[in-house]
Every structure is written in structure tokens, then in C-alpha cells.
Amino acid sequence: MNILELIQKRYTAKKYNPNKIIPQEKIEDLKEILRLTPSSINIQPWKFTFVQNTEIKAQLATASKHNQERVNQAQLIVVFSVADDLDAFQTVVENEFPQFRVDWYNQIKASMPESNLKVWLSNQVYIALGVGLTASAALGLDATPMEGIEPDKYQTILNMTTYKPLFAMAVGYGAEDDLNRLETTPKSRRTQESVIETI
Ligand SMILES: Cc1cc2nc3c(=O)[nH]c(=O)nc-3n(C[C@H](O)[C@H](O)[C@H](O)COP(=O)(O)O)c2cc1C
């Protein structure tokens, strides 16, 4: 399948087959693919938490609004978090990056209010969601991007301090009777004329 066909075929799964197991090597590939996500100045201000443990998934499900059922059913939940404690993240930057990148980050940090910096950092994490959704499709897996979660509760359940959850992605095999499958719900998008300008 070429990349266009892949993108035409992927859809947001609303219902999962809880019995079909994801091969562990696909999960390992997904971890590495997310790690390789590009970001502005290569700042990588994220944590990707892979949750397969049924009990923890059940806890997350209670903090997942209308996504509760999917979080329980999907074999894997990936929680995407952004650096939130900026002092702690400063230490990460200083320990893990070469000096030129530390200087670059410090310049950006000094150039804007903290609230804008946090928006900028969060924007980088959304790039990983795009990568993760496309990668899931390429791995033959179905996925659900989910902003409909309670980040504060997720943060407590996952015991996080430096990072704060932004959204999650359920991954697994979609149920045959999922009404959001393309057979029942064809892809719906604005036209090329509306969204693409060619000059
Ligand atoms: C950032 C983001 C957050 C989303 N949050 C949810 C969600 O919480 N629950 C859900 O069922 N779908 C969610 N969606 C799925 C969108 O509704 C879906 O991508 C859109 O309607 C297009 O449909 P498609 O993905 O099937 O092509 C989200 C999508 C994105 C990109």
C-alpha cells in the first residue's frame, strides 16, 4: 500500500477488539518511531508513556471522559506529555544536549513569556501525534487520538512531575462492528480547493 492509500484508509477507531494481541515488535517499533519525531531546534520536550497494564488502563479510563470504553478495550494506550516543570526540564536540557542547543533553548526561553514558551513546547508534542497516527497505520494497527482526557488526573495516576499529559492515543485492532469504519463512515474532509493553494 502506498502512503496515499494508507492515509486514505486510516480512521479514528471508536471500538476495539480486546482479544487481538498487538505483536510486541510493533510496539517496540512505535516507541522508536516516536523517539525519532522531529521538533523545533530538536528540543524534544516530551515523554511518551506506553501503558499496557490492564489495571493502570482501567484507572486512566475513569479519567477519559467519552473515551472511557476505548481506553479499557485498546491493548495499548500511549500518553503524550509535555515538559511542564520548566526548572526540571532545564536540567534535562543541560544534561542531555550539546552546549549549542542549550544556548539556543535559553535564547528562545528568554525571548517570550513562560505561557508562550509552554504553548511552543506543547506544539512540538502534537507533531509526535501526527507521526504516531501515521506510524500506527503503517504498522497495520488502528488508533484513536484522544484529547478528551483529564490531564491532571492522568498526571496523578502516572505519578508524573516534570511532565504533564496533554493527550493520549489508543492503539490496537479496531472492532469489526465499529461504526466509525470507512464502510459505514466514509472519510469526510474539506475539499482540496478549500484547503490547498497552489501558486
Ligand atoms: C488532536 C486530536 C484529538 C482528538 N480527540 C478525540 C477524542 O478525544 N476522542 C475521539 O473519539 N476522537 C478524537 N479525535 C478524532 C477526530 O475526531 C478525528 O480525527 C476526525 O474526526 C477525523 O476523522 P478520522 O481520524 O477518522 O479521519 C481527535 C483527533 C485529533 C487530531
Characterization of the model:
The protein has 199 residues and is α+β, with helices and mostly antiparallel strands. The protein has a single domain (3-195), classed as NADH Oxidase (3-Layer(aba) Sandwich), CATH 3.40.109. It is built from nine helices and four strands. It has helices at residues 3-9, 24-35, 54-61, 68-73, 86-96, 99-110, 114-138, 151-157, 192-195, and strands at 46-51, 76-83, 142-146, 163-172. Strands 1-2-4-3 form a four-stranded antiparallel β-sheet, sandwiched between helices. The longest helix is centred in the middle third of the chain and has 25 residues, at 114-138. The radius of gyration is 18 Å and the shape is globular. Flavin mononucleotide is lined by residues 11-12, 14, 67, 144-148, 167, 187. This is Nitroreductase. InterPro entries: NfsB-like (IPR033878), Nitroreductase (IPR029479), Nitroreductase-like (IPR000415). Keywords: Flavoprotein, FMN, NADP, Oxidoreductase. Its cofactor is FMN.
Features:
single chain; 199 residues; alpha+beta; NADH Oxidase; four-stranded antiparallel sheet; 9 helices; 46% helix; globular; binds flavin mononucleotide
